[in-house]
């Protein structure tokens, strides 16, 4: 009778495969991802170099593993910053409402009104490039969307009878917010997290593509796309494989999110 | 005579600020004696819930005299689907009011929870379930248990049986009467169902647009309603029966 949730099943499998692939890169790569080799310049995919080599003769497979790891770490860190602060702001604004809520939400509107990449570029221009700065810049940009999501949930629940009951029983407000209401919002937050994760991966890739992401020595999926575009037609493997990793990772996580939303309904 | 559970003299309540400040309740005089069940009847918007909120301290913009002699009056809500936290187990829901009054000893909380669920006719196995795994009647029993577990003697029942079907209504009403006798409770019973009020209440007060139009013993009000509104309410409910 119960319809099988294909999004969740397939998405979880795909995400798990990608995570295993990326996790592998933390422990083992066939070659040093930064090692140059003039002899293998733009070498085609072969048994020695599964994904071929780039214009500096670096092994694309090793760099993809390594770059995907960097991209994942940055995306998760961005997500963590946006989620933690978004959760705190959204929960307090949603539960209490009033003038502070209205003010904070207008600030969030103002941040959201700018294209996020443009705003991140401005922030980077001010505080300078670097991995931690990227995380800070993107993290701040992710706060409003989470805050709005959490706030909406808290507005929905704050007038429920079980919250009134808790208040009548003398439960402190902070406990009502984080112990009584928050667990009810997890399904929605989880699906919001998957969307946020995808946006974070794509934002990091975009920033690195534009050359304001990770430092020149580090690999990142966005940076590889940027470096490979000059040889897009002569050596498509330089861009194809990192792009494929971005696509599959985002697709898998996106399907998990869709699956969670389907389950809530 | 012992002091009343609550007493209102000339109570008015307001909503909004400045020019938009509206008077919702108009000069209400009402009291509840200990061990009594007082029915509060009226259509939606008549001020029943506002009156309950005044008694619970949730509406503070009031004029007149208001005294509630229970330190922590509790309320049982109409919809047992909304009044229990869907993310928690029944055991947790019943323990939480005890944690709120600083009963730190886990064994003591457990003992009081077990005692209470037995009183409302549930079993230990229900404690590990979530509200969605219980029937409507069972949920309302849990809601009643949660309202009683802190030891409050004054309970406001906000349409506690109107979301249930007729057989369950009778069971829950019987449970409420039993608990009242056993624990020495007093009820303010809010309802729009006059036949339910007749079954359970000693006295009844009728609200209409924030004014009290009728008040007295149930028999007296039902046989000799003082206002046209009460007459119409009674006729409408008779027509349905």
Structural overview:
Chain A has 265 residues and is an all-alpha fold. Chain A is built from nine helices and no strands. The longest helix of chain A has 37 residues. The two termini of chain A are 16 Å apart. In chain B, the strands form two sheets. Chain B has a six-stranded mixed beta sheet with strand order 5-6-7-3-8-9, sandwiched between helices. Chain B has a three-stranded antiparallel beta sheet with strand order 2-1-4, covered by helices on one side. In chain B, strand 6, helix 5 and strand 7 form a beta-alpha-beta unit. In chain B, helix 2 packs parallel to helix 4 and helix 4 runs parallel beside helix 5. The termini of chain B are far apart.
Order of helices and strands of chain A: HHHHHHHHH
Largest sheet of chain A: none
Distance between the first and last residues' Cα of chain A: 16 Å
Question: Strand pairing plus helix content of chain A: what structural class?
Answer: mainly alpha
Stretches of chain B where pLDDT falls below 50 for ≥5 residues?
Answer: none
Q: Give the oligomer, counting copies of the same chain as homo and different chains as hetero.
A: heterodimer
Helix content of chain A: over 70%
Radius of gyration of chain B: 18 Å
Helix content of chain B: 25-40%
Poorly predicted runs of chain A: none
Number of strands of chain A: 0
Largest sheet of chain B: 6 strands, mixed
> Biggest interface, and residues per chain?
A-B, 15 and 24 residues
List the helices and strands and how they pair.
The complex is a heterodimer of chains A (about 260) and B (about 240).
Chain A: H1 6-27, H2 60-96, H3 98-113, H4 116-127, H5 131-158, H6 161-168, H7 173-209, H8 221-228, H9 237-264
Helix pairs in contact in A: 1-2, 1-9, 2-3, 2-5, 2-7, 2-8, 2-9, 3-5, 4-5, 5-7, 7-8, 7-9, 8-9
Chain B: E1 6-15, E2 22-32, E3 37-41, H1 48-56, E4 62-68, E5 74-76, H2 90-100, H3 106-119, H4 136-148, E6 154-158, H5 166-183, E7 186-191, H6 194-200, E8 203-208, E9 211-217, H7 218-223, H8 228-240
Parallel strand pairs in B: 3-7, 3-8, 5-6, 6-7
Antiparallel strand pairs in B: 1-2, 1-4, 8-9
